[in-house]
Amino acid sequence: MMQRYWVILRKELFCLFISPATYVSTFYFLALLGLGFRFFIESFSGTNWILPPLSSLALGLLFGAPALIPFLTMRSIAEERRLGTLETLMSAPVNASSVIVGKWSASYLFFLMICCGAYAFPILLSIMFPEQALTLGFNKVEHWIGGFIFLMTFGASFSAIGIFSSSVTKNQMVAGMLSFSLITIYLSVMAFSYGEPAANDNLNSFIDFFAILGGSLNEGLDKINFFAVGILDIQTIIHQIIVVFFFLSLATLQIEKIRH
């Protein structure tokens, strides 16, 4: 099974690296993010931002995910279904889970590479303006690690949503719009719930029960307060792993349905 997984992963990464749409979307995304980061840093002293300045980059990548993830995932399965190559692939000695996990891993790794490219902005700032970077706290390693793990956590679930969206249609544009909509709804719920009191273990009503089940769906954005200073919230990480498993399982069931 691992050999089949690696074969699919290499193939999908190769397809992402040779796709012009991937490079165009990545360029514009990083360019806009870089401009936003520059203006934020220049005006940081006049804002009431309470988090470390580096966390603004993580939030920019998080809220930019609905525009980026669909470009990385919409072709992965939908295009193969349209061309009829998915049926040929499934006739080979490979199971649906290997196909789904391999395609998800490729898009997730590419997303992480884009995040690494975005983190080059504060690195360049630290090289060019070391004193200002020191004032902004760019020398604190825990801020870098915490913010990147936060992106890794939500990037995994967003990529899984994109793969699921690509598995339910033969039209890659429909897959892209579905992925964009689901991720946007996810972020909207987190933004709407930002600052609300955290759910406790006392189940006084059904609302408390669903709030606990929601996990990072209704408290995820609040957790940036912990990750930004290097404190890892294990509950959020576990919840996102569950979200990844849920959407990848749905995509696997969809592929199995096509096979049969």
Outline:
77% of the residues lie in helices and 0% in strands. By secondary structure, it is mainly α.
Secondary structure: helix percent: over 70%
Could you give the count of β-strands?
0
Number of distinct helices: 14
Query: How many structural domains are formed by the residues?
Result: 1
Radius of gyration: 20 Å
The assigned structural class equals mainly alpha
The end-to-end span amounts to 20 Å
Chain oligomer state: single chain
Ranges with pLDDT <50 over ≥5 residues?
none
If you had to describe this structure to a student in words, what would you say it looks like?
This protein is an all-alpha fold. The chain has one domain (2-259). It is built from 14 helices and no strands. Helix 3 (55-73) runs antiparallel to helix 6 (96-118). It is elongated, with a radius of gyration of 20 Å.
Keywords:
elongated; 260 residues; 0% strand; mainly alpha
How does the SSE layout of this entry go?
Blueprint: H1 2-18, H2 20-42, H3 55-73, H4 78-83, H5 85-91, H6 96-118, H7 120-128, H8 130-135, H9 141-167, H10 172-192, H11 206-214, H12 216-219, H13 224-227, H14 234-259
Helix pairs in contact: 1-6, 2-3, 3-6, 3-9, 3-10, 6-9, 6-14, 9-10, 9-14
